[in-house]
Amino acid sequence: MIFMKPVQNTALLAILSTAIVTPLLSGEARAFDLLTGEASSAYSEKFCPAIAEQAKTDNIDITCQNSGGSLDNLARVEADPAKFGLAQYDLFALRHNNAANKKTFTAVHDDIGRECLFMVTKNPLIKNFGDIAASAPYLNFILPPENSGHTGTFNYLRTVDPEGIGKAKNITYAASTEDAITQSLTSEDNVTLFVHAADPKSKLFSLVNDNKGHFIPVISREILAEEVKGRKVYNAEETDISNPSWYKSGEQVVTSCTPIILFTGNSENIQDPSLKASHQKAVATLTATPAEKMRPSVGWWTKLWTSSKAISAKGVEGLLEATDKAKKATSPYLKKAKTAAEPYVEKAKETTKDVIDAAKPTYDAAKEKTKDALEAAKPTYDAAKEKTKEATKDAIEAAKPVLDSAKKMSQDAYEKAKEMIKGKDENAPEQEMDPATEKAPQ
After folding, report:
1. One domain for residues 287 and 343
2. 180-193: buried (b, 16+ CB within 10 Å) or exposed (e) per residue?
3. Interior CA angle at 97 toward 96 and 99, to 5°?
4. Residues 353 and 295 in one domain
């Protein structure tokens, strides 16, 4: 018994040591950057903190890092595959469709949220995307900054619908999304597009409503047909665009929405073996984590999530038919504008013709008068020409004696100078050489 107690204590210490030390060695948190967007964006303020909080429970250390948004995140993850990023799924799909990028990115979650496409104009005759598509060559598209996700989506739509919005010609870029909306609502020929969560309380929605703009449903067969690996890029959803008040309910618009995707690089592209192994474990863990655990706080998210909802296939088909009809009709906007302008164009043509006809006699009279004036001036011109000729001749004759005298004086001076030089050389005395130095005396 004397020896048993120390043995038991030693064994107990060994067990405790193993229990304490092993988690410390194997449970070290793996640290990764998660690229978001601007500091004020929902990616930075809402989505990333929620993902980081959940990841911490799985012993993954996520650091939220501000960035230029979706396009910037894709580029930076392509350069550093160990980073994670948030992006619009349509832009991820556009980048992923490139054959060279098939093994560049890894999708972790494409169900943590969604953003919707909103086109805005002040023109009351533009009702749907068919009007936009048919009128594209004649409209002014004022977009957010060229490197923004909003403009990236616009460019994607142009590839999806080359015969519609793909024919847009007048495209300019504003300094910000707010600026693009403000500029687009200064004329009925302007349109803008932005991608945002269905949040009527946001500054962008308020800007549209305060400036009397209206939202255009971004819906077409071409857009809704887009898929990547069997996953639809866009879904038609009914979204809130204004908040209800005490005297009226909020307004909705059915438009295309795209998921928010959490993605990273391909682990196989990471060179460091230790980092590669940690990255693979992090990807597996986050992929297995249910999406609802990675979403923002319940209060904010519940409102945002219920601000958009899927609509029935019948409802979608009705919208698609309206879009098709508008495209085939070459847009009510163009048709009505052309019809309204035709009388004025014809009137302008007639007025121009009348003005030209009325002006013709005056023009002909002016031409004749000019001809008469030229004929009347000819004798005077000829006389002046002759007089100038005679005056020039007389001046030359009068100047000739003076010229000859000057020439004679110049010749005499020359000869005299020549004689003086010659005389000086001839009269110069000869100098004898000094025999001692063989030099002339000084």
Report:
1. no
2. bbbbbbeebbbbbb
3. 95
4. no
Regarding whether 268 and 130 lie in a shared domain, the answer is: yes
My answer on whether 139 and 262 are in the same domain is yes
Outline where 250-331 has alpha helix (H).
Answer: 273-288, 298-305, 313-328
- Structure confidence by residue, pLDDT tens digits, 360-397: 676 677 667 767 766 777 777 677 777 767 766 776 67
230 vs 205, higher pLDDT: 205
In a domain, 156, yes or no: yes
Q: How far is CA 394 from CA 84, 380, 389, 404, 407, in A?
A: 99, 21, 9, 16, 20
Per-residue exposure over 397-407, b if at least 16 CB sit within 10 Å of its own CB, e if not: eeeeeeeeeee
Q: Are 90 and 156 in contact (CB under 8 A)?
A: yes
Specify whether 268 is located in the same domain as 368. no
206 with 306, same domain: the answer is yes
Q: Which amino acid is at 223?
A: I
Banded pLDDT at 230 (limits 50, 70, 90): confident
The boundaries of the domain holding residue 367 are 332-407
Would the pLDDT of 55 be above 50? yes
Considering the domain architecture, whether residues 223 and 115 belong to the same structural domain is answered as: yes
pTM of the full predicted structure?
0.64
SS3 category, 433: coil
Strands 252-265 and 105-109: antiparallel
One domain, residues 350 and 326: no
Residues 6 or more apart in contact with residue 9 via CB below 8 angstroms: none
Nearest of 255, 220, 224 to residue 328 by alpha carbon = 220
The count of domains in the chain is 2
Nearest to 60 by CA among 263, 289, 268: 289
Q: How far is CA 360 from the centre of its chain?
A: 52
In a domain, 294, yes or no: yes
Do the domain assignments include residue 379? yes
> Burial, 337: exposed, middle or buried (Cβ in 10 Å; 0-12, 13-18, 19+)?
middle
End-to-end CA distance of the chain: 140
Do residues 279 and 270 lie in contact, with contact meaning Cβ atoms separated by under 8 Å? yes
